[in-house]
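Protein modeling request. Please complete all fields; requests missing the sequence field cannot be processed.
Requester role: graduate student
Desired output: 3D structure, token encoding
Chains: 1
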Amino acid sequence: MAKLFDDILKKGMAEGQIPAKTKLARDWYRLQAKEAGRMNESKFFKSATHEDFQNRFKIGHMYLFRYNPKHKDTLPYYDRVPLVFPFAKAKGGFLGINFHYLPLNLRAKLMDALYDVTNNKKYDETTKLRITYSILDSASKFKMFKPTIKHYLAPHIIGRLMYIKPTEWDIALWLSIAQFKGATQNEVWADSRKIIRGN
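Delivered output (199 residues):
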């Protein structure tokens, strides 16, 4: 796994924080990721092992990857390093929830709600989300999802997908690694809040 994930998980386990098991533990891991500060994208990816990467996505699992959008010249802005849960296959790729489009407090709220739709509570490599667009759209607890839905085209993914294990979800959630082009992070987050409010 990436060195940062390894370091934070070791520290957490030493302090009795079992990843994903409780709200308290989730918040602890998120705070550790936030305190790590701005991530250097290249160094972060290079710190991962070969086994951390996959060639294909699986629905309901979390991935971090580099992306070069097909229509980047006409997009108001986009994230070059998405953190995504794919939830449906789509033409040429998949639809996914990119958490980077939400400020940290809303990422936490959405992720806490999504923990309710995991297929099991093992939080190992068998664990995944069981979600569809209709599930997301039908419950108010998921209302933060609307600005996060993006269509990712497989040919425009740069390199391989970094698989984020369920024990690492909360660390990845608050990592400062997003790279928005065309707008600042705060501008993107302001737009997302407006979408959630229905403005």
